[in-house]
Structure formats: structure tokens, C-alpha cells
Amino acid sequence: MSQFVAIRRELHKIPELGFQEVKTQRYLLDYLATLPQERLEVKTWRTGIFVKVHGIRPTKTIGYRADIDGLPIQEETGVPYRSEHEGYMHACGHDFHMSIALGVLTHFVHEPIRDDLLFIFQPAEEGPGGALPMLESEIMKQWWPDMIVALHIAPEYPVGTIATKQGLLFANTSELFIDLKGKGGHAAFPHLANDMVVAACSLVTQLQSVVARNVDPLDSAVITIGKITSGTVQNVIAERARLEGTIRTLSVESMQKVKERIEAIVRGVEIAYGCEATIDYGSMYHQVDNDKALTTEFIEFAEQLSNTTVVRCKEAMTGEDFGYMLAKIPGFMFWLGVDSPFGLHHAQLLPDERAIDFAISLVTAYLSWKGNN
Q: Which UniProt keywords are given for this protein, alphabetically ordered (predicted)?
């Protein structure tokens, strides 16, 4: 087992939610402290970390970002290094992302290149969103990179395959929370109450018409209601209901139109079911829009490597707050094949660990080339 596979397994044991990554930050800092410090500068930001690796004769700074938070999912993999935090799991590969970043960073500490490198260990990607406030931090302003790169594991691709494209890679996303308040009562007297279970069910059905009838068929959008909470017991009419979901679109304009239609439908539900409703859009993530020139350059570089297969993929409805960084800094993100039968955010996600050393080798080679040219 390689050093960074072992590190991934240790990180896998301690998943933590956004801005609660205390153990994770401590683990990363302890590892960084074992490295030669001559070229290193380490600064913490909330539960995140900035690490600058000074080059020999820098002409620019290249950024590399890895997210560090976990998800509120009960792990079902059964592996001996499974999560030690009940109800939480690294089910989106951020343990992979961190171990790969540490591997790349370690290489350049021992074998510096011409240019400076900035490694960003970012908290709260899954929510409430760490990229935008990190981008606005004083440390980031001081160490602002000239370009930036990130990767994300992809269960559907085999190890040794990467996938990316010029322009839009990931969608605009927004959380969606709708609270309904009516009038509770006895199940035997529905005429004296305003039932929010019925209102919520009607609302979910109506929301499905937004994409079908209000979005250009040549565009794309998705509204998903993933959770409904209502009621207390079987013989009491529910006074309240809460819907939780997400909105995903391929353009900022479509996101605005979808939200306008949701608000109109909710106003109609208020009238039809005699209730009060509130909408909260929670965290909103900017689309991941890859810089055309840098992405093309990376694809051409990777295609020359004998051990790498490059797929020019389509855009995905996945959300990623790395999009905020790409909105301000030229760069790109790519998918890393990890060949798992279970997908992202699944309790049995089990990525192939051979992808870790492959990714370290690939990213190191690219940054070495880019940072010396």
C-alpha cells in the first residue's frame, strides 16, 4: 500500500461536515509539519488551509484546490477503515481529493519547480459553501494564483481515464427549502383544518411541470425534491410541511426563470390550500466553466501520456462550488476515473484506490511542465 493510499484511509475514518472539519484540519496540519519547511508557508482559514510552495524563480503562481468535508450519510461499505463518525461518510471522494493533493504537494516540496504553487484545502464544499468566502479571504488576496486546477472523482470511469471539456462542465445549482404552514386538527374533522401533507404533495407534483413546460427543450434543468417532512402521528392532520431539494440548470438565465416559476406556483398553493409558505434557496453554486485555452492545453498534454485515456465528456448537472473560483481565476476541473459500482453520495461508494497514485503522477507531471514553462 502506498503512503497516500494509507493517508486516504485515515482521512476516510474521520468525515466531518462543512466548517466542522476540525479533526481533518488537524490531520492535514500534522502531516504538513513532517515535511521540510524551507519552501513551505502554511496559513489556516477557519477549518481550511492555504499552503504555498515557493518556486526557485517564480514568474507566476499556480493554484490547486482540494475539498475536505464529508456528508451526513451512514456508511455501508463494510471496509475495515470505514467511518468512525456515526452517520457521516466521505461519500463524494473528498478523502481521495485530499490525499492526492498531499501527494502532489509532497513531491514539489522535495523537487521544487520554477513557479510558486498554492494548495487550497477547502472546507464546506457540500454546504454551506466554502469556495466563495475562501476566495474573498485576505490570505487568498495576498496569494492570488494566476491559474487554478481541481479534480473530482468519477465512479463511472475506469482507473487511468480522465474526462473534461472546454467551457461548461458542471451546472449552476441552488438548494431549495419550502416551508408550508396551515392548520392542524383531528383526522376525523378535516374540514376544520388545512392539511399540509395534501398541500405538500400537490406542490411536489406541480413543481415537476416547471422543467417540462417552462424551460427551453434545448436547454436543461432539474428540480429534485429529496426530502419531505410533515406530521407527527397518523390521526393528526399536519399543520406544517417542509420540502427540501435542489435546482440545477445549465445557464444563469434558466436558474432565474425556474426560481420565478417556483415562486409563482408556491403563491398559488398558498391560495389554494389556505396556508402560508416561505422559500429559502440556501446555498447557491456558480457553474463550473473551464477556461478554453487552459483546458485544451491540459487535454493535449494528458493525451501524450501512455498511461492516460482522455475522454472529452459532456457537461453534467453536478454542482461544485469550485465554480466560484473559476469565475475569478482562469483554470479547469476534470473528472478522475475511480471505477466504483456505486455512485457519488451513495452509502456504498467504494472508489478504486489505484486512482490515487495515478492522479498524483498525472497532476505532478502537468504542474511540473506548466510551472517550468
A: Amino-acid biosynthesis, Diaminopimelate biosynthesis, Hydrolase, Lysine biosynthesis, Manganese, Metal-binding
Q: Is the pTM of this model over 0.90?
A: yes
Q: Is 97 labelled a binding residue?
A: no
- Domains of the chain (ranges, CATH numbers): 3-170+287-371 (3.40.630.10), 172-284 (3.30.70.360)
Sign of the alpha-carbon torsion through 104, 109, 114, 117: positive
Q: How far is CA 89 from the centre of its chain?
A: 14
What CA–CA distances, in Å, run from 140 to 42, 95, 133, 148? 12, 23, 10, 12
92 is in an annotated binding site: yes
Say if CB 211 and CB 221 are below 8 A apart.
yes
The residues annotated with a catalytic role in the active site are: 67, 126
12 in a labelled binding site: no
Asked if residue 217 has pLDDT above 90, the reply is no
286 marked as part of a ligand binding site:
no
d(CA 296, CA 302): 10
Give per-residue pLDDT as tens, 288-312: 999 999 999 999 999 999 999 999 9
